[in-house]
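DATA SHEET
Item: assembly model
Revision: 1
Owner: S.N.
Input lines:
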Amino acid sequence: MSWSIERKLPLLVSALLLIVGIALLSVGYGEVRRAARQLADDRLTRADSAIANLFQTAQQRTRLTTLAKDSALAAFLTQTTRRSRSRNLVLDAMRRIVTDTLSNSALELLDTAGHALLRTGRFAAAPSVLSVLAGDSTVVGPLLRRDTTLYYAAAAIIRRDGRLIGSVQQIARVNLNERTRKALTGLAGGDVAYLLGNMAGDPWTDFETIIPAPPLSVRTSQRPIRYERGEAKRAAATVIPGTPWSVIAELPSRRILAPARAYLVTMAPIAALIVLIGAIIAWWGSHRLTTPLREVTMAAEAIAEGDLDKRVDVYRRDELGRLAASFNIMAEHVARSHHRLEGEVARRTEALEGTNAELESFSYSVSHDLRAPLRAIHGFARILLDDHKTQLDPEAQRLLGVIDQNARRMGQLIDDLLAFSRLGRKEIAAAPVDMHELAQGVSEDLRRSEAEQRESLDIRIDPLPPALGDRALLRQVMSNLMQNAVKFTRGKDSARIDVGSRPDSGQTVYFVKDNGAGFDARYADKLFGVFQRLHRAEEFEGTGVGLAIVKRIVQRHGGRVWAEGKVGEGASFFFTLPAAEKPAAEKANARSG
Amino acid sequence: MREAVEILLVEDNPEDAELALRALKQRNLANQVFLCRDGAEAVDFFSKNNGPDPKVVLLDLKLPKIDGLEVLRRLKGDARTRSIPIVVLTSSREEPDIEQAYELGANSYIVKPVDFDAFARAVADVGLYWLLLNHPPQ
């Protein structure tokens, strides 16, 4: 499919714009997305560290450790009697801690067996969460669940003189409600949600309700990763120092990618608009570019078809304008030289026509005026012979006979000369000619006229390909050559004439070969001249025009003619003619049609 | 009053005329021959002729004053002379002459042979044919 430049150019430009637009959009989208994710990741890590600090239990643990070292507690535990006074002292110390730290917690004083000896605070006590106590510092236990509440225990060991005598344990409840969750989310800003739970597994909470524990990979990953919880989310975890807990900050992917989507929504129509405007500009530019080109093309075609006066109407200052101007100048030159040539041809034709007319009147005069006196010479010589024979002696009669003969011969010469001159003017009506049939026709005529005088005349005609030419003229060529062959073999006992052909680069070489008198090869070029004869008149009759006529006809057909021969060994005459390949196909068509 | 003319010979060349007359005489056709030496005489002959029309006109083409084709045109263009047979007898075997002669209404076109025997035979045959064999309209 071939499209015009006018269509191809804007299509190409639009395609390029489209590709560039899509590339820019996708690169931009990718960048925005990456930046948004980076931002979200930063936020998640910051949010993590913020809440980890919020859950700092250091102060609480310090107080608990301090409480465990209080002498009142040790005294209470070592006293076996009169505990009431020291019991009040212990409760006072314990209450102080509860008020100072977590309001919704309880404190228990345990003996070495883990039995609670004293208890304070509002929170209902749970069984001891510390099965093993070691070291002197406070240990925070894992989050525990009871129905819908979440709590934990922290405990410190009480010693006296290095000996373990009991422990103090604080049990605190984690506040789970919407307010807590919203407060925390507000703290981190935006849509960040927090999850809290044990690093080891359940229970977990989002600070409003109990939820299933997130996968281990999320619980332990410090770097933000992607995971599914209801929807796609991005989350980062951090360990709360001094506890076995982990807190996770998470953001829905949807919210993270919102800016990227917003970018796409804003930029896509702008890109589409740019492509559209680009396409329109490309179409307009291409139109402006190709219109003058089309004008020039059409003008060139018009000139090619012969309308030499066609010009281009393009008035611009750029290259196209120059092209049009140059084209017009060139067309002007072409038209001018064409007209000059036409004039020249007309003048020459006129001159040629004049010459032709002169030649025609000349040959007319020859034809008419030369014959009349000849007729008179011949006629009166005959009358003399017919009417006054008795008064003429034999010598006079012989002389009159010579006059008679020469007058006839002169008549023949005039006729031949006229025929030869007519050939130069005759139009050649070229058509496929069956040369084989033509040669056979000539051969039959010759046999008929020679049959009485000759005992053996062997004429062999090979299959001959058709030629392109004027049938009547080509018959004359064949007839003249074959007549010559017959004439010059008269002296032979067994005359043999061969007619044949061979192809020669688009043409056909035809030949007529005889085994007759032949000729001296030195005079081969003289054979075809008018009135040129290589034999004496008594030997072979003829005016010397036959071969000149052959040469002129063959040349007018665009062919060549030449001869080969040797005295006493025969002669061969060759002539070329354009081959006619078409007749076979035409015949086939005619048959099928 | 002269005798009725049967053959009108229009020929400017005296030798050709003599040879033609001789050929006709040999067949006893010469008595009724009238000779015109040029085209004008031929045209004149017809304008003054009161007697019956000649049975045939032997017309050369190359004639002084009025040439043969013009004579032919006038005779064939005139209603009174249109039916007279005209045989063109000329040296010219040029194609244009032959075509034009027939176009103008010539009844025959004969090229004068150089050979006297052939010429004599042709003239005599033409005379015999038109005088004895041909039946003109009455």
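QC remark: Confidence is low (pLDDT under 50) at residues 582-593 of chain A.
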